[in-house]
Known about the structure:
It is a single chain. The protein is an all-alpha fold. Helices cover 96% and strands 0% of the residues. Helix 1 crosses helix 2. The longest helix is centred in the middle third of the chain and has 110 residues, at 34-143. The N and C termini lie far apart (134 Å).
Amino acid sequence: MANFLIATCWVTMSTAIEQLRELREIGEVMGLKGSELMEWVREQQAVEKEIKEYEREDKEMEDTLLEKQRLFEIEQKAKENERKEKEDERLKEMRLIEVERAKLQLEREEKARQEKEKERQLELEREEKERQEKEKEKEEARQE
């Protein structure tokens, strides 16, 4: 860990030294010398520092916006999932109601069929009784 920190500091320092050299060279090319050169280098460093600060703030703002967007999308997805679950539950309940209705309809139809069959049997028994009575009457009429 210490080696990493040392390496990071060294890279940062060497980058800062290179930037100073570049600024000094640019200032010299512009014809600045002595205290004017030093003042100009400081001003440039201050400008670069401000630019970096603005870039950092922009990145933080962008990261914040991205996080808000991500949270919003997660929330929307959760709402959509909840809506789908409710819809699925409603459809399931409707299917159960339809199944119950179908069962009741089948039961009614079966009862109606049984009633018809019972009536038919009663009719057949009544006809059979009538037939037997007629035969009995015929038999009695023959015997007389």
